[in-house]
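Notes from the 1:1 (GR / supervisor)

We went over the backlog. Supervisor wanted to see one worked example end to end before approving the batch request, so GR pasted a single chain during the call. The sequence is below; no edits were made to it. Supervisor asked that the structure be written out right there so they could see what the output format looks like.
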Amino acid sequence: MYLNLKEFQIIDVISEMKILIIEDEPELAADIGAYLSAQDYLCEYAGTWAQAREKVELYRYECILLDLMLPGGDGLDILDILKEQGQQDGVIIISANNDYKNKIRGLHAGADDYLAKPFHLPELAARIYSVIRRRSFANQNNVLQNELKVNLSSRVVTVNGSVVLLTRKELDLLLFFISNKNRVIAKSALAEHLSGDIADMFDNHDFVYAHVKNLKKKLTEAGYGNYLKTIYATGYKWEG
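Structure output shown during the call:
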């Protein structure tokens, strides 16, 4: 039984980070997805080895939940694909096999964590949070850049000590920019990050422009150092 225990303290997570749930049990995948979506994660699904391979080859995720026993192949092969492509997606193995040798095998193959079934959903959310924070922000709770500060736990952004009120999308964009500092990020990549694998359904990326414009306006009015640059005909870059 996969319990959503309300008496557990639920760790607040970074807004709308993308999660890929690779799980062939539809009911379990739906339960995980519903719980994580309520925690402001953007969830996508793969129920077979072939679907999982297609997802990891086409898209990037902050964290992948990987079942090892999949129709069509071994889940550990997905880890090999990630390594071959040099991807930095966090991976948590979720498996009914609690044998320590199997855990070691998975961790040696490149997984960040291993959670045996059955598990409590708040524990899974806590482990996802830890993997994302460790991979993206060197395990820190506060992200600092001169006058700008982001507290990852409380999701509070301040500039020169004054709180800047951001929407969830704007905060998500800010963290995405900071974690990709000094890299040019294409508008298409931002669209995919914000909306997942439905990004291709949009005729243009005007919604990306709107979110970036609002984020930059709020930070500028608060007096930040203009780190977010527009790269003509390409995308954006956070300089630092």
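Supervisor's comment: The longest helix spans residues 121-137.
Batch request approved.
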